[in-house]
Design goal:
six-stranded antiparallel sheet
Length: 415
């Protein structure tokens, strides 16, 4: 069963939300955050990217930066830019991209569910990134930004959410940069809150869609606080962390594409010949060509697009990892032909989220920065859930979720 609870959210007043809200900390660098914050002292970047309050070049891992995050978080509360609700609520957060809306329930999930594997992951985490987020949670004693979960489709919850969606939201704005619509409702009714709690209790698992490091950090800090409290009971606020949970079928996963700097010493003719061992290769000409189905890839180099269709026997339909296009391309193209084995550390490869479009792949190759680009068919949410259920881990850089959650709409304090 999935244990969740409502919480007393800390939120900006309606008239300030567009000044406070921001993109997540991990989708932009320090200088981008500095530019986006500009002279806006209410921007959440002062809490989630507080290095912008120091001279250019200051490391985001400087101990003073973490201390500044806590100082700014307190200032935001003291000045009324963030205000805590007087009672516990669940919340609804809707995002609209390309005329499609997905509705998430903002809840507090239990750290024990993460530790026991009831909250399932599909990616590896890095200890250095976990430690960075743990420091941020510790110093603020809060989950400033939510994690992004998926749950199996549920008709009862869908009907409840749709009922609220017909009412006026507390927040409703178009975000800069991405241009997507974001809406937010507060669930006041006790019966509705109990229904949400009860329906989640029927679910054997929740699935991390995005935010593996934030999930790990929140759970580890919760475990720390359990050990530090000799009177620990299990219902303390530190046992919970904030998540936005979406029905799996609503989520949009975009392609996550690859660009490579060289062909590992091969000529164009040798590279195409090597591909033909495991793929049916077809020249598609100079117009952008997008993969149309699973196990088809688009290759761009020498100002031409090619269709690559993996041959039978090059993948295992019974293996949730082996059937993935990210695995096929990693094994048979990047590793076997181009000798790029470790996608996490190689300097010869970069990754481009599907929101940028295949035109971005063409641009980076035509500019001479990259030698070739490979476009993949997107992973499905069902594939992610199957992999998480199997206990296996996806290859790196396999999923790209859009739209990203905006930060600053609601915050969860650990006490």
């Amino acid at each position: 069963m999935a244990i969740i609870k409502p919480f007393k959210g800390i939120r900006p007043p309606r008239e300030l939300v567009e000044q406070v809200e921001s993109r997540p900390y991990d989708v932009l660098d320090s200088e981008e955050a500095r530019a986006e914050a500009g002279d806006n002292e209410k921007s959440l970047y002062h809490i989630i990217k507080p290095e912008i309050d120091f001279p250019v070049g200051t490391s985001e891992y400087d101990p003073r930066v973490y201390e500044k995050a806590a100082e700014n978080f307190q200032t935001f509360q003291d000045k009324g830019w963030l205000v805590q609700d007087t009672r516990e609520h669940y919340y609804i957060y809707a995002q609209t991209m390309n005329q499609k809306t997905q509705y998430g329930l903002v809840v507090c999930a239990h750290t024990d569910d993460y530790m026991k594997g009831n909250i399932k992951k599909h990616e590896l985490t890095r200890r250095d990134k976990e430690e960075d987020r743990m420091k941020h949670v510790r110093v603020n004693n809060a989950n400033i930004e939510p994690v992004f979960f998926a749950y199996p489709d549920n008709q009862v919850l869908d009907e409840l959410i749709m009922r609220y969606a017909k009412t006026e939201p507390v927040y409703d704005f178009i975000a800069p940069i991405d241009g997507f619509r974001h809406q937010f409702w507060v669930i006041e009714d006790d019966t509705d809150m109990q229904t949400i709690t009860d329906e989640f209790a029927k679910m054997p698992s929740l699935y991390i869609a995005d935010g593996h490091h934030r999930s790990a950090a929140a759970a580890l800090v919760g475990a720390e606080k359990q050990k530090q409290n000799p009177n620990h009971k299990g219902d303390e606020e530190y046992n919970f962390f904030m998540a936005v949970c979406f029905q799996a079928s609503q989520l949009t996963i975009l392609d996550y594409n690859r660009v490579v700097k060289d062909l590992n010493g091969l000529s164009s003719e040798e590279f195409l010949a090597a591909l033909q061992a495991n793929f049916t290769v077809e020249d598609k000409g100079t117009e952008i060509y997008k993969p149309a189905r699973l196990h088809e890839f688009s290759l761009y180099f020498d100002q031409h697009w090619y269709s690559l269709v993996a041959k039978e026997g090059t993948y295992d339909n019974t293996d949730p990892i082996g059937v993935l296009d990210v695995d096929i391309s990693s094994r048979l193209i990047l590793d076997e032909i181009l000798n790029i084995g470790d996608l996490r550390s190689s300097k010869r490869i970069d990754f481009v989220g599907g929101l940028r479009g295949l035109g971005e792949l063409k641009r980076r190759v035509d500019s001479g920065e990259m030698r070739a680009a490979l476009a993949l068919y997107p992973v499905t949410m069902q594939q992610i859930m199957d992999i998480a259920d199997s206990g296996k881990i996806m290859p790196p850089k396999a999923t790209w979720f859009e739209p990203k959650l905006r930060s600053g709409l609601v915050i969860h304090k650990l006490s």
